[in-house]
Structures are given as structure tokens and as C-alpha cells.
Amino acid sequence: MNTFQRVARGINKLVAPLLTAPVVGGALSKSMTEITYTGRRSGKTFSLPVSYQRRGADEVIVGVAMPDKKNWWRNFQPGPSPIGIRLDGVDRTGSAVAKTGEKGTAVFITLDPAS
Q1: CB neighbours of 15 closer than 8 A, spacing ≥ 6?
Q2: In whole angstroms, what is the distance from residue 16 CA to residue 22 CA?
Q3: Taking the CA of residue 89 as centre, how many other CA atoms within 13 Å lie in the half-sphere pointing to its CB?
Q4: What one-character-per-residue DSSP string does 82-95 give?
Q5: How far apart (Å, rounded) are the C-alpha atoms in residues 51 and 35?
Q6: What are the pLDDT digits (tens) for 10-26?
């Protein structure tokens, strides 16, 4: 694990509880949420806070800043892969695909209709 990844892990441990905290959580959850996924090689379950944008009722986009320094998004290549995401205080499930293009790297999540 490189220095960037260690610092990111520490920040994530601080931010994750804030997402559900009274007052602060409501403001943060408009642009941040927590995703949960299973590692493709380890089989372990991971959760981490991310920034997101809604795109319609059943799509969410998670931008990946500095993708060369991060590994988590690779779990969704080639995809689709299962993912959990908390939206509006409700845990939802869906499938995710990571794509890299001229605008950068992003994970596109399609929410399951019944979740």
C-alpha cells in the first residue's frame, strides 16, 4: 500500500461516520455516500465513502479522481459487478461498470428496481 492509499484510508475512516451523523450527515449525503462491494481477488467486503451524482431515478455516477493512485474502481472492470449504495438513507443494490474515457474515470451504477 502506497502513502496515498494509507492517507486515503485514514480520511475514509473519518468521513464514513459523518455521513450518518445528525445535522452534518444530511448536508454531506447530498453529494457523498457510501458504497459497498466485494473485492474481485480477495472476496472481502469493502465499504468506502465516495462523491456521487444522480442521473435519473435509476442511475448514479461516481467519479474517480486520480484513478492511477486508486484500485477500488477496478473491481467494476469489465463489469457489471454487484454493488451496494446508500441513497436518501436507504441501502440500495445495483450493478456497476467502470469506464475510462477522455473525461476521466467513473463508475456507472444502475440501481436494481426492487431495492
Answers
A1: 28, 32, 49
A2: 13
A3: 6
A4: EEEEEETTEEEEEE
A5: 10
A6: 777 777 777 777 777 67
